[in-house]
Structure prediction request, 475 residues.
Amino acid sequence: MSKQFDVVVIGGGPGGYIAAIRAAQLGFAVACVDEWKNDKGGPAPGGTCTNVGCIPSKALLQSSEHFEHAGHSFAEHGIEVQGLKLNLAQMKKRKDVVVKQNNDGILYLLKKNKVTFFHGRGSFVAAKDGLYEIAVAGDKLETLSAKHVVLATGSNARALPGTPFDEQLVLSNTGALDINAVPKKLGVIGAGVIGLEMGSVWRRLGSEVTVLEALPVFLGAVDEQIAKEAQKLMTKQGLGIHLGVKIGAIVVGKKSVTVNYTSAAGAETAVEFDKLIISIGRTPNTIGLNAEAVGLQLDERGFITVDGDCKTSLPNVWAVGDVVRGPMLAHKAEEEGVAVAERIAGQHGHVNFNTIPWVIYTSPEIAWVGRTEQQLKADGVAYKAGTFPFMANGRARALGDTSGMVKFLADAVTDEILGVHIIGPMASELISEAVVAMEFKASAEDIARICHAHPSLSEATKEAALAVDKRALNF
Ligand code: FAD
Ligand code: NAI
Prediction:
């Protein structure tokens, strides 16, 4: 006998568990199926984000930043530290505790919202009489049936052909978050978000980090002015960034990995690393879904094909998050999860792809929303730009963190904000104001006329908005 639900969600990451909660709030009987196991074999919902992504990486970024401050900037504040020592085991233990708090929090939220959680792998069995039958292979085999199915099965790290992840020497994000001793020499292939965040963690803890990037430009998706500033600052911090390289043979030895590559200048180079992180993007995960049983359509890159409303090729089957097109971001997955639940309820769920913020949690942080200057030029849009450096912000000086700037891009005629780009302290928090402003179609002048607390980093946002009209007050 199958257990019947209105909605079965497969995948308990940010896309899935949020879709399940919203559907339950809307009055549906909901099941959420997730197969992630903790180290004791128990359920660990939250997906990549909670277990080997957003949360543990931010925990290690925070810890490693404290370590770097204690070693390098406390003295300037008149705090003398003697005998500073890294306890990596404790740092990792703290990270694991933070992850578990989030796993437990999600289990609590599912229960609170009366979502039935199933721990195991969910796969399609068949579709009949308007219902989908889903098998869940966990400790025992369960069969569920539902009219609506939401697929939120996430993504996996992409390997380089011929060099599978062993998580000992060749590391994906999973291994990169779980290294037992600080590697003397750490190689990173791919100067994207993971490469820079994880490269920063291990550099702060003492590794000599070399980042090898195929593209000739640094952070090509980021506003050029901001990306240039980021490259300058990260190079100064000690990240060895090599652009325009062509990776050749990777030879995995017993205790080290040798990467052969051709540099941008054409020089054949071989470097031996103690560990190698490969962070060259992620691939959608549909392994184990048994999509063929019901004829679910995937695109040529393996993503589940969806329309603008996250509808798949099958009636009443929806897909959200990393397993479908669009940015692979937890908050994008969540927004899609909410919108799908609302569409199932006959409402008009909506995700505005133009106002999804991006954040890179390096130091300084990089955050942006909307279009870059190079995109506006390519689109032939007449725009005005205003920038304000944190160097001229009182709070940033008090913090001792004055690198970077806020940059506004506004329509030359209407003054509507088209993009906001920040590199600097707390950029991840500051960007929210810009997202709200863009959602409300605000002009740069709107932000410029709003009272911002003093002294605060957010004054740099106001000043950058003033600078659009060439009337910054403090610079
Ligand atoms: P996932 O989080 O991958 O969850 C999918 C879940 O489905 C998993 O638990 C999986 O086990 C389960 N599953 C898959 N197939 C089945 C099946 N057949 N049956 C049962 N369960 C199944 N994004 C941000 O926005 N901010 C960040 O700071 C950030 N940092 C990141 C850092 C790293 C190192 C990485 C790797 C990613 C980071 N991301 C970040 C990206 C973010 O983790 C993803 O965009 C997000 O997790 C996608 O959510 P999702 O629900 O689509 O998939
Ligand atoms: P990415 O797409 O951010 O970066 C991959 C980089 O690898 C690119 O610069 C690409 O040019 C380069 N590359 C690709 N093939 C290569 C090759 N053969 N040799 C050398 N370089 C090569 O992907 P990444 O860093 O793996 O992260 C995956 C996704 O996870 C991100 O796109 C993002 O969506 C998400 N994420 C988000 C975070 C955040 O929001 N702060 C943090 C970490 C990950």
User: Anything to note?
Assistant: Residues 189-195, 197, 212-215, 247, 279-282, 327-329, 359-361 surround NAI (ligand 2) (CB under 6 Å). The chain is about 30% helix and 25% strand. Residues 377 and 383 are 9 Å apart (CA to CA).
